[in-house]
Design goal:
The protein is built from ten helices and 22 strands. By secondary structure, the chain is α+β, with helices and mostly antiparallel strands. The chain binds flavin-adenine dinucleotide.
Length: 417
């Protein structure tokens, strides 16, 4: 339960970005509370069974060099590389780091515990209250006394005063100086009725599935070719979505497969998340039966687990002081107010249930401007992770775990100033 009713910084959402934000705020000396609706941390990275960290390394055919924030690098070194994992190369010089979900999950707890962050699980934020305030703009003449200032010379603005939540179904409230919305879905602006980027096409969701019974000698790429051919020849064309081995997940005869739904998400069809979850789970059974029937080496294929939640890549986004654009990503722009490094290309899962990549130069990176993390309409509200302000194609680059940790840590520092 919430130990105290006041914190300097409250972080809403315990995904990778929220955890990094809470750590940064604690490192900056703030008292911090992290609120998470589930009974577990990691968000998409754990409940949707992701399994690989992208956005840690620069894209390069010749070297392996870090391309992320210090927090993400230290996290990877301390919890993943030190336990024997190593970076793997995928197509076109892309490099990623595979991780075990239980280990990843407990590592997030360790980082928060080490910094004495108050973690409130089973805590769903359901409301927020605004208060109006008048602030004197920075360029106002400092000799101007208060009595000389009219209301017009000051900026009328608003700040969050209270967050309301259900803690294991018990209503309660918390007050704070600043709020970091790490929900990935612009939760706080939605609750406040503020304008959001809530229309248009988002990427197709995917369901992760653990399997056993894969041929021992076969590598992931050739298995994916065999699977794709088998599904096509048994009548499961692109209209059923795609099924492929998650890169870096194959160990002996087991691996994680990723089933991607055939259609992108249309935000105007909201609410549809429940229907998509159910249809993904329903489609997987017939696809597996077809594989077992057609490919002799897969006749013993069995599902060992299915991710608790369908993975939604992006959703509603907030309106901030600045918006990250695809042009800035592709030009590797590094604005003066850049606060987080992005080294992953634009990766879009669209109509045909396959990833389409748009690259920027090898061994280069872009930086996310601070303005894309700071709410336009509320003075004490910040965003991070997959829920920053930006174009869909830009966030398709910045949403990966390495960069989400970077924008999280940056939001934590900004919120503690
Ligand atoms: C299918 C799929 C595959 C991916 N593959 C990769 C990959 O291979 N490598 C990679 O690096 N990235 C990958 N990504 C992207 C990456 O995993 C995510 O973008 C990243 O983990 C997002 O982190 P986040 O903290 O911003 O958001 P989230 O993980 O969405 O965290 C948000 C948190 O907020 C909580 N929350 C929401 N509402 C409330 C509320 N009302 N009250 C309290 N808490 C709330 C949620 O429960 C959640 O824990 C993939 C994503 C998907 C969907």
């Amino acid at each position: 339960m919430v130990g105290s009713t006041y914190y300097d910084v409250v972080v809403v959402g315990g995904g990778v970005a929220g955890v990094a934000a809470a750590c940064a705020a604690a490192d900056a000396g703030a008292s911090v509370c992290l609120l998470e609706r589930y009974g577990t941390l990691g968000g998409v990275a754990t409940v949707s069974g992701v399994g690989t960290i992208c956005g840690l390394y620069l894209r390069s055919q010749r070297l392996i060099a870090w391309g992320c924030s210090e927090f993400a690098q230290t996290f990877a070194e301390r919890h993943i590389l030190s336990r024997g994992a190593s970076p793997l190369r995928a197509r076109d010089g892309l490099i990623f780091l595979p991780y075990e979900i239980p280990l990843f999950h407990s590592s997030l707890y360790s980082e928060l515990n080490a910094r004495k962050v108050t973690v409130c699980l089973h805590s769903t934020v359901i409301g927020a209250e605004l208060t109006a305030e008048l602030i004197v703009p920075n360029n106002t003449d400092s000799n101007n006394t208060d009595s000389n200032n009219t209301v017009n010379e000051k900026e009328a603005t608003q700040r969050i005063s209270v967050l309301k939540l259900l803690n294991w179904n018990m209503p309660c409230a918390v007050t704070c100086n600043t709020v970091i919305d790490a929900s990935g879905e612009a939760l706080i602006p939605i609750l406040l009725g503020l304008p959001c980027d809530c229309e248009g096409v988002r990427q197709a969701p995917s369901l992760s599935i653990g399997v056993r019974g894969l041929p021992l000698g076969e590598d992931e790429r050739s298995l994916n070719v065999v699977i794709a051919h088998a599904l096509l020849s048994s009548g499961f064309g692109v209209q059923y979505g795609s099924l492929a081995v998650l890169p870096g997940s194959k160990r002996d005869d087991h691996a994680s497969l990723k089933y991607t739904l055939p259609k992108p998400l249309l935000l105007s069809n909201f609410p549809q998340h429940s229907d998509l979850e159910l249809s993904a789970r329903k489609n997987v059974g017939p696809l597996f039966e077809a594989l077992k029937k057609i490919i002799p080496q897969l006749k013993n294929l069995t599902q060992t687990w299915v991710a608790p939640q369908l993975g939604f890549r992006t959703g509603t986004r907030p309106i901030c002081n600045e918006s990250l654009t695809a042009a800035a990503v592709l030009a590797c722009q590094k604005p003066a107010n850049g606060v987080a490094i992005g080294s992953w290309p634009i990766e879009i899962w669209g109509e045909n249930a396959r990833a389409e990549f748009s690259y920027f130069a090898e061994e280069d990176y872009f930086t996310v401007p601070a303005g894309a993390l700071k709410a336009r309409d509320v003075t004490n509200l910040f965003f991070c992770g997959r829920g920053i302000c930006g174009e869909e194609r830009a966030v398709a680059a910045s949403r990966v775990i390495g960069t989400a940790m970077g924008t999280g840590y940056a939001a934590g520092l900004l919120a503690s100033r």
